[in-house]
Amino acid sequence: IDRYKARLVAKGYTQTYGVDYYDTFSPVARHASLRILLAVAVSKNWSLSQLDVKNAFLYGDLHEEVYMQQPPRFVAEGECQKVCRLRKAIYGLKQSPRAWFQKLSENIENEGFRRSSADHSLFVKKTSTGTVIVLVYVDDIIVTGDDDQGISNIKDVLGQHFVTKDLGELRYFLGIEFARNQKGLIMCQRKYVTDVLQETGMLGCRPASTPMDINTRLYDDDTEDVDARQYRGIVGKLLYITVTRPDIAYAVSRVSQFMDKLKKVHWDAAMMILRYLKNSPGTGLFFQNGTSLTISVYVDADYAGCPSDRKSTTGFCVFIGSNLVTWKSKKQTVVARSSAESEYRAMAQGTAEVMWVRSLMLDLTVEVPLPMQLLCDNKAALFIANNPAFHERTKHVEVDCHYTRDMIQKGFVSTSHISTTGQTADIFTKALARGPFQSCCSKLSLFDIYAPT
């Protein structure tokens, strides 16, 4: 034990909306924004440092009238009937996170930083000698850029307003481990994965070569029920592991669709993902030095792949140069009437994602070469996107799906056909056999620094 710590916490559950609190939402950095920032920083060889703010929520200013009973054993003598009016936020209040972020963002913006329109937790300042970037996740802050003096200045300013600790080079952030050398940077969750395996009793299990068997069918069957609470806890932990492990994105997306009326088949599917993680708990995303900053997206769809409702699954992955930054595996909300329609819906989502990535990179003062590449293995969907006269096949598709065509005509995106065997996004739409699965993993910039050489 290093020290004992006590904290005064308010009974926030007694607060009433519209009386002593209003808005409670506080933005935090998206994990995709973190990966994009890392890809840019590594490509440009920027330094990455980390700050931690002590007792962050105590700095927020309260604009509502909030009253609190005097703390036990600290009642003012002769004034036991009085209550305290809070001027500053304390832990436990519903508006404390929002009040803290407002206080922090005001101090950062007063130093000439501009908040990103793509991610409100990202702040950028363009100086005469370079760029300074600040990424905020509650009380954890990443500072990077190519202006060393500007980085030092913002650290000093934050240290004057708050009690901060300079943790030096980025090594451990939100349960994610970072290691950097001359070739690039890797982010992984080895400790977190090991802890999850320990908690679930799977640390000594037999490893699996893939996260999901190709013959697995996750539908209601006659097998026995399982503990829903424990299952949900495991799935929640697996969802967080996907921050650095795109190879399990599809499998986790599938098991997360079954949170009620759980059967043993669902439990076994979740356990197989853990067995796969046991095979290489130290695997993570690798960001290569000196790569280009061109944006490309691989888009795929598994037509009518769900046996229960015949909805298709969208999968895409976005690269900055050779570095993977965002991805998605998600079942579509409507039933597609053709494979071309399902692929076209996936193209629309992939196009929207690359436009957001471009917007964020422009906020980082990074020029993005145009057009951005959209690679799909369905020729009919590509023809629809590039040919506005193909009405017979498109009149039943919603208008918003034609967003892809608009971006193509404006020159932001260009489409290319790719063979099915070369489709990297295939891993996000269906369970694959060991060979194709490992082939896709090799294209996703996954690397295990703990593997024996």
UniProtKB/TrEMBL annotation:
InterPro entries: DNA/RNA_pol_sf, RVT_2. Signal peptide: none annotated. Residues 3-212 form the Reverse transcriptase Ty1/copia-type domain. This is Reverse transcriptase Ty1/copia-type domain-containing protein. It comes from Nymphaea colorata (pocket water lily).
